[in-house]
Specification:
The longest helix is centred in the middle third of the chain and has 15 residues, at about 130-145. Strand 1 (about 5-20) and strand 2 form a beta hairpin. The protein has five helices and ten strands. The chain is α+β, with helices and mostly antiparallel strands and about 230 residues long. The relative contact order is 0.16.
Length: about 230
């Protein structure tokens, strides 16, 4: 049987960032070249012949934005025939989480600019990247219910109110603070420190908390059932 196929393989990075005063943001690059020149898009590009998918997405992300991640989880594959006007391109999207202030952004290669955008104030995106972003956000919100979230987004030690705010933003709703703390603490991936979080709450200062990395990693693998 003859082979008649001309398909390229690409990767795209759906990287969510968090900053306490801003909330949840997405990392976007402004394209330097056509197609969609001067449009904002997700970081990404073609997979080289000598690299695997994970190597490709981490390389493209660092080249175009300066952001370096140790881990990204595969999100979904997007293969609509007309998703790229140049040719048939199938892309594998990956999901990552970072603290925004951990990196100094700088654009390079195919990116003219790079910036964080609040998820509620997005520019028009090139390709099918709005669909990819929407699926990434849906995955992130769903992930809250079966795996711990926050180690990649909060400081090493934090007042419990920071974790409450993070979950409220991810779920896009108010949460019952007392019930939330009771449920979170029973899973054992948060440890209370013997240190007062000064300046966080002038009325009733509470203690700092930190993630129990061992238990956190265990729950990332085994999962849990968490409902608010």
């Amino acid at each position: 049987m003859s082979k008649n196929q001309d398909i390229s393989l690409a990767v795209d990075a759906v990287v969510f960032g968090y900053e306490k005063s801003i909330g949840l943001s997405i990392l976007l690059i402004k394209r330097k070249y056509q197609p969609f020149k001067q449009k904002w898009a997700l970081p990404g590009g073609y997979v080289r012949n000598d690299e695997n998918l994970e190597q490709a997405v981490l390389r493209e992300l660092e080249e175009e934005s300066g952001v370096r991640l140790n881990y990204m989880e595969q999100l979904f594959s997007f293969g609509d025939v007309k998703r790229d006007p140049r040719k048939r391109v199938v892309t594998i999207a990956y999901l990552g989480l970072v603290k925004q202030d951990d990196f100094m952004l700088h654009a390079s290669t195919d990116a003219e600019d790079v910036a964080w955008f609040n998820i509620k104030e997005l520019p028009e995106l090139g390709f099918d990247h709005k669909d990819i972003l929407d699926l990434g956000l849906k995955r992130l919100k769903g992930k809250v219910t079966y795996a711990p979230i926050g180690f990649e987004l909060l400081n090493e030690k934090f007042p419990f109110s920071d974790l409450e705010r993070l979950y409220s933003i991810l779920l896009d709703k108010e949460i019952d603070r007392r019930n939330f703390k009771k449920k979170i603490m029973k899973f054992g991936f948060i440890d209370e420190l013997d240190e007062i979080a000064k300046g966080e709450n002038a009325g009733r200062p509470g203690k700092y908390y930190t993630f129990n990395k061992k238990r956190y990693n265990e729950l990332q693998v085994t999962g849990f059932g968490f409902e608010l």
